[in-house]
Amino acid sequence: EADIYQTPRYLVIGTGKKITLECSQTMGHDKMYWYQQDPGMELHLIHYSYGVNSTEKGDLSSESTVSRIRTEHFPLTLESARPSHTSQYLCASSAGGFIEKLFFGSGTQLSVL
Amino acid sequence: GENVEQHPSTLSVQEGDSAVIKCTYSDSASNYFPWYKQELGKRPQLIIDIRSNVGEKKDQRIAVTLNKTAKHFSLHITETQPEDSAVYFCAALDSGGSYIPTFGRGTSLIVHP
Q1: Per-position b or e across A30-60, b if 16+ CB within 10 A of its CB
Q2: What is the pLDDT along chain A (113 residues), one digit of tens a residue?
């Protein structure tokens, strides 16, 4: 079934660890996004991509990096996790063109101790 | 860049009442205005959207209105039900420009049985 998948669903790690949050979509979408969602609900755009080899920083200053080597895959990496990175991370994709609807993944809840 | 303001942040209603959530945007180039619903513990999902060449759109109990002159748009839910309880996000984007949606801060709607 065409969908957007995020793994892991939950992650608890210690400070200083390097982690990668995975996001894959099987819808053939060109555009992909990473959002950080705080407990107060607000969605903060941290990275986005228009397609393969395209990555851009979003509005929220972030110590994370992303890559887009394949259309379907858009992983997010934290080189050195800190407690301030504790949050829910949502991946999304859209087809582009005049089809602007975003499809969201189920999210990764990250806790950094 | 675009700025989207959303009000109220919390809305509490009795089952059967109507609920209205309002958003304003700043960029006159924005021409697509989606609304997403996020139930507790789940991913945001598109529930209705409107383009700038339309003033109103309805889908069963939900409707969206757009006033381009005033740069505001609203979500109307009639005959609310407990399953309408969720966080609702408005967004605005320029589908001929950057394609990156700017989200409002979200409204937590609580429908009391």
Answers
A1: bbbbbbbbeeebbbbbbbbbbeeeeeeebeb
A2: 789 999 999 999 999 999 999 999 999 999 999 999 987 789 999 999 999 999 999 877 678 999 999 999 999 999 999 999 999 999 999 987 766 899 999 999 999 99
Q: Searching chain B, which residue's CA lies closest to the CA of residue A38?
A: B105
Scan for tokens 């609580």, then name that residue: B110
* Residues contacting residue A39 through CB under 8 Å, at least 6 positions apart: none
Could you tell me if A13 and A81 are in contact, meaning their C-beta atoms sit under 8 angstroms apart?
yes
**Is residue A36 within 8 Å of A64, Cβ to Cβ?**
no
| Residue A75 in contact with partner chain B when CB distance is under 8 A | no
Read off the DSSP letter of residue A10.
E
**Interface test mutation site (partner A, options B38, B52, B88, max chain A beta carbons within 10 A):** B38
Dist. CA A101–CA A95, nearest whole Å: 8
Question: Nearest C-alpha of chain B: how many angstroms from A9?
Answer: 11
Q: Please report how many Cα atoms fall inside a 13 Å half-sphere around the Cα of residue B61, on the Cβ side.
A: 12
Structure tokens at B54: 């339309």
Neighbours of B80 (CB within 10 A): 21
A 7-26 near B (Cβ less than 8 A): none
